[in-house]
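Record pair follows.
FIRST:
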Amino acid sequence: MQKLRRFRLTSSRIIIFGFAGVILLASLILMLPISSDSNTSTPFINAAFTATSATCVTGLVVYDTATHWSAFGQAVILLLIQIGGMGVITVAVSLSRISGKRIGLLGRSFMQDSIAAPRLGGIMKFTKFILITAMSVEALGAVLLMPTFCGRFGVKGIWYALFHSVSAFCNAGFDVMGKTGEFSSFTSFVGNAAVNTVIMLLIVIGGIGFATWKDVKEYGFRIRKYSLQSRIILLFTAIFIIIPALFFYFSEFASLMGKERVFASLFQSVTLRTAGFNTVDFSSLKGASLMIMIVFMLIGGAPGSTAGGMKVTTVAVLFFSCYSVFTRKKDIQVINRRIDDDNVKTAAAVLMMYVTLFLAGGITISLVDGLPLQKCLFETASAIGTVGLTTGITTSLSSLSKVIIIFLMYVGRVGGLTVIFAAARSSLSGAKLPLEKITVG
């Protein structure tokens, strides 16, 4: 009884239990014959894999979404993508508010942690802004995609436009187009300006974070008035798109010409924000390109967004920390501001955690299934970064390897620190041990 009294539902625990509950319920629904196109039951491990991938907005699949799942099953997957992209707590609080229930201080605190809001004041207004913006952007994306998709697929193009708009905005990477002739997914649209532009914009908008949306709404193009976090996110997002795009353009896609090569390079770079779509066949990419993709998949998008990964702010803080060491500055300074040392410790912990899980998962899968290590590392980076890109090994993974990927996708979405904070006890002691320096570097 004493242990039960000590167990409190903190915001971290609410988040991990909320995601776990949604995944478990969705797994049972996807197992039902009505969820599959063949009207047969889907094995639990594969249903759980799909449910986790959708809820954690990853995009890795063991079945072709277009051919294995029925219309009902695809609708369930789309709903999971929306819940995962917005966050379980965000959706739950919004539904409670719509039903007329009053949200107390504790619920507002959970909401603040869920969406990484800078302050508790005005959190419900901020949540309303997030939902309206998300629905509006997804609807606009669907409308812009309809002419192309309806022109190619007829009435079915309406469903394609809606599904892929939500999937792109939520950085999920699921597609329902399946294989068309020699093409699959978006590979048949490699040079289509409309599809490429709309999908890339949806991915970037979803991945820059809810707080950045608010700054854009309030200040427009007056970037100097944005918060420091928003400015860092926009700067490093641009850098992390441009660098891979230039690398891909000059090292890959020699068979493509003109705008096709430009769009292919940009699209493959943008999708590393954790979106998971592709317009080229990854089996033809060089080993160096795959390693570049692994690095940027791990980085991911912004905190408090639909994207996963370590987050661009984590890498930015570590970069500025290194710069302060190299220039022998005592404080970490960024745009006339000073970054707290606690941010550096948190960023270093997140980096260490992601790299450790990514390497341990890839090495284990390689040993268990006898697959090439680079392909396994690509898979685990895609999973923990909630990206969804693959070199084609997902369907051939053993049950143990699927469990590893499920765990990585889950941790990648809820956040490694969230899991640790949920399991660990908080230390209230203010006592300090004697200080001693050690040599590093």
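SECOND:
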Amino acid sequence: MVRGGWEGHVPVEATGLFVGGLTRDGYEVEVSDDLEVYADRELMGRVDLVVQCWTMGEITAEQIAGLRAAVAEGTGLAGWHGGIVDSFRSCPGYLQLTGGQFVAHPGGFVDYQVVVRAESADHPVVAGIDSFEVRSEQYWVLTDPLVEVLATTTIPTGDDDPWRAPLTCPAIWTRRWGKGKVFVTTVGHQADVKDLEVPEVHQIVERGMRWACR
């Protein structure tokens, strides 16, 4: 687990929600508060999964090169909300790796629905989970066509909004990168860990971590 960046997303508390479950399932969990671990080729070569919770911040050329290489060789990458899709905004190599980038959350905290796509209903990350509602930040994200979208959310438009029509964005997706797998969910605002305790959200994150693991 690599955690840090903007403290408003309480990375220590948020990642702490998942350490126990991973440990009980037999995973050996190492926690780092420093991005320099990504440049440690020996460490990254033996890690099966990186769970990242690092909002905004900067990443060096050596660090992103190490992370990209590790995932390409089979290390999984997983995360939620700003900890994975609002990280390292100025690094194109990171954005390419994750396949998406946060740009806005209109209205702040709002009630919204996450809709599991019918064609993805059998995917192990969302199997058996119906569409569900949360009250949190609804992420407007830019993604590329190589992500496998498992669930979406639709941002409405009002009379005073500059966009002309409701916008449907991916809310949960996966991605292949070389031999590795990437899992992303935009749901789960870390400033209030109760978001991550919503049963569907918590289950999806846990499943996403296990799916991405080498």
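COMMENT: The two ends are 15 Å apart (CA to CA).
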